[in-house]
Amino acid sequence: MQPTVPDDDLIRTAVDLACRAPSVHNTQPWRWRYHCGVLDLWADPGRRLAAADPPGRQLVISCGAALHHLSTATTALGWLTDIRRLPDRASPNHLAQIRFHHGTRAPQPHDLDLLTAIRLRYSDRRPFNPVDPYSPLPASLKDLLRQYSVRLTVLPRSTRPTLATATELTGASRQFDVAYQTELYWWAGHSLPDDGIPLEALATANDQAQVDIGRRFPIGSDSGSILHPDQATILLLSTNGDDRGSWLRAGQALSHVLLEATATGHATCPLTHMTEFAPSRNLIGTLLPDAGVPQALIRIGSTDKKESPRQTPRRPLESILTITPPPP
C-alpha cells in the first residue's frame, strides 16, 4: 500500500534539491517547515538585500525558483504537489503551502532529465556562443509558462543596445552607492562556507568585458575560452502585476526556463540588476510587445569550455528545514 504522505527522508531529499535553486547573490532566503504531511515555504527577511532589493522582490523571486525546484524534484521522486501560494495574508512571508499526492502515472524520462538538471545547473557569468540550433529549447516553453501567468519574450538581437543602456543606467546609479557596493562585496568574491558567490564562480575582468549586459561583480578567477562578445539569446519574463504573488510565480517560471535550458545542454545566467533600478526597469519594459511588468531576464547560450564554473555553496539543510513530528 502506498504511503499517503512523504516520509521525512524524502522531504529532506526534495528540500535539499529545491535549495539548489538560484537566488540573488546566492543569499538562499528561504525557510521550510514540514508537519503532518504539509510543507510550508517561508521567506527569510533577514537575508533580504537591503540596498539592492528594498521591496524584497528578488527575495520572493528566489523563493519562487526554489518552489519550482521542489515540485520538479518531487515529481521525479513519484509525488505530485498541490501548491497554495500566499496561504495567509496576515503572514506575508508565508509564501506557499505544499501538499503531496501520488499521480496516475509514473515519472516520465523528461521528469528525470529535469531532476538531473537541478544538479547540473549553475549561473555562468562568462560570455556565451549562440544557442545550439541542434538542441533548441522546447517550442512549447511559452505555453508552459502560462500556468504561472508569466509571459516569455525572446528578445531580438536588435534590442541588445537597449539592454546595454539599461545596464549602464543601473551601474551609474550604483557606482557611488556605498551601501550597495558594501553589500555586493560582502556577498560576492569571498570564501563564505555556506552562501554567497566565491571568486571561482565569478568571471575574470576580460570575460566580464565581453558581457555588456551583466551585473558588474567583483573580478573573479573563472575564465572561459570564448574571445568574442557575448552572443547569448536573451529571454525576458514579465507579469501583469507587481505584487508578491506575481513575484513568486515569476520565480517559478524562471526556474522552469533554467532547468529546461540546462536539460538541453545550454549555459544560463539570470539577470536581475536591470529590474532593480526604476529607470532601467522602465526601459526594459519598452521591449515588451504587450503591456506587462519586467521581472527577470535570462542569458542562454553555449560555451566551449568543458569545465563548468564551481557551483556556489549551499547552507546546511538543518539550518533551513524544520521537521515537526506529528502528535502521538
Description:
The chain contains nine helices and nine strands. The chain is α+β, with helices and mostly antiparallel strands and 328 residues long. It has two domains: 8-121 and 314-324, 3-Layer(aba) Sandwich (NADH Oxidase), CATH 3.40.109.10; 141-301, NADH Oxidase (3-Layer(aba) Sandwich), CATH 3.40.109. The strands form two sheets. The protein has a five-stranded mixed sheet with strand order 3-4-2-1-9. Strand 1 (30-35) and strand 2 (38-43) form a beta hairpin. The chain is globular. The model has no long low-confidence stretch (mean pLDDT 94).
Say how many strands there are: 9
CATH architecture of the largest domain: 3-Layer(aba) Sandwich
CATH fold call of the largest domain: NADH Oxidase
Number of domains: 2
Low-confidence stretches: none
The major pleated sheet works out as: 5 strands, mixed
Summarize the structure.
The chain is an alpha+beta fold and 328 residues long. It has two domains: 125 residues, NADH Oxidase, CATH 3.40.109.10; 161 residues, NADH Oxidase (3-Layer(aba) Sandwich), CATH 3.40.109.10. It contains nine helices and nine strands.
Which key features would you list for this structure?
NADH Oxidase; single chain; alpha+beta; 2 domains
What's the SSE blueprint?
Blueprint: H1 8-18, E1 30-35, E2 38-43, H2 57-76, E3 80-85, E4 94-101, H3 109-120, H4 141-144, E5 150-155, H5 160-174, H6 178-187, H7 205-210, E6 233-239, H8 244-263, E7 267-271, H9 278-285, E8 293-301, E9 321-324
Parallel strand pairs: 1-9
Antiparallel strand pairs: 1-2, 2-4, 3-4, 5-6, 6-8, 7-8
Helix pairs in contact: 1-2, 2-3, 2-8, 3-8, 5-9
